[in-house]
Amino acid sequence: MTVIETSELRARFAQRLSELYGAEVPAYNTLVEVSHEVNSRVMERDRADAERFGSIERVTAERHGAIRVGTPRELAQVARIFGALGMEATGFYDLRDAKPQPIPVVSTAFRPTDRAELAKNPFRVFTSMLVPEDRRFFDEDLEARLRAFLEARELFPPRLLELADRAEAERGLAAEQAAEFLDLAAASFALSAEPVDRTWYEELESISGVAADIGGVTSTHINHLTPRVLDIDDLYASMQSRGITMIDAIQGPPRWDGPDVLLRQTSFRALAEPRKMREPDGSVTTGELRVRFGEVEARGVALTPAGRDLYDRMVAAVDKRLSARPEAGRPAIAEQVWREQLPESEVELALRDLAYFTFSVNDARPDGTPPQRLAALIEQGWVTPEPIVYEDFLPRSAAGIFASNLTSAGSMDGLQGGAPRDLPWLSEAIGRPVNDPSELYAAERQASLNEVAQKLGIDGGIMVA
């Protein structure tokens, strides 16, 4: 009996979604094509340095999707489906206070967490869940009606969930069952042809376009599917040269001459897609909705908590300077702040414990007894740091992409109380652990340091700080 193992099941599902989304949103195919062209140019230009954050095979295959659900029950079902693919809930993102525009959702990402599994196929899905209880967005009456609507729908058929549970328990499926699982899963994320209740959708859209996209329809769908690119500035210009309208800016860190950190993202603008609309008199007409867009990303090194604190301070400094000199523009101001405050090399990031690295022992290392402190091992040439790629997301960037593609600014009442949500709450809501990304990166670094200590004979381990 042929068994399709977890990693292959994940790769096949990512490919199925790519084919589905490309058929539904043809501009996505252009985005993928341009991404490949850009990556080829970077490989030709930078040679081996182009693969510092992953092999070209991995980067070419890499995708992240985005979906939206309405309730903890729906999110728990999503967790079961992605659990079948070896993808764990990782990270907690609260977009309700995000700039430039609050979004009434909390989010997590489902992804592989093992480095070997990431190398096989690093598919990840950023998954947002509506928070109807948050009074800043929804009053009691709207919450009650929204809850009733969400509880009455079924996003995923029971057979899909049954196969998902089996795949997770058995770490794969027989070929025939795998085909059935992939068919059901892909269909669950396809855009529905069912008419949208125009009055209900527009009521939610007055609060938030994302709320309407989640709670104004009876299904879920892929909002975007994101390839990875090695030079996002080249990609941005290349897409525009093909006549495709991009959002106003690249989200995340600026382009500069120093180390690439965290994540940079951009997208083409959400396209007007024809959708059937049910009018108040019961008739069905054809309207347009703008909810899906083509995102692309470039990834850098993961930052430690100290590095994230520095990053947050730099972002705040950019905001402050931009408010005083808006004519200067965010990219130029951000680049200036980065030059002033962020180390200019990966080695310096490692020495200051601002980013996560794995370490390998140098063949041409000094004679004598190695020091116990990591900084000394680096400075004296005992070890070489290799960056750990950032596999996760930035709340501000996600909110910026969402906001840039909304047709309505929505509304909120900041004087009302919110609904507390955090990582432990989310874990309890879906009935399984939600990983803290920093803990995953720290564990990977520590495993590397343990190997170095053993090879160099350093008793008591290596001291990072």
UniProtKB/TrEMBL annotation:
Q: Which GO terms describe its molecular function?
A: dioxygenase activity
Presence of keyword Oxidoreductase: yes
- Coiled coil ranges: none
| Gene3D superfamilies hit by this protein | Uncharacterised protein PF07063, DUF1338 (3.10.180.80)
User: What keywords does the record list, in alphabetical order?
Assistant: Dioxygenase, Iron, Oxidoreductase
Q: What is its EC number?
A: 1.13.11.93
Instruction: List the protein's name.
Output: 2-oxoadipate dioxygenase/decarboxylase
Recorded hits in InterPro entries, A to Z, give: HGLS, YdcJ_bac-like
Q: Does the keyword Oxidoreductase apply?
A: yes
Provide an example Pfam family for this protein.
HGLS
Required co-factors: Fe(2+)
What family does the entry list? Belongs to the 2-oxoadipate dioxygenase/decarboxylase family.
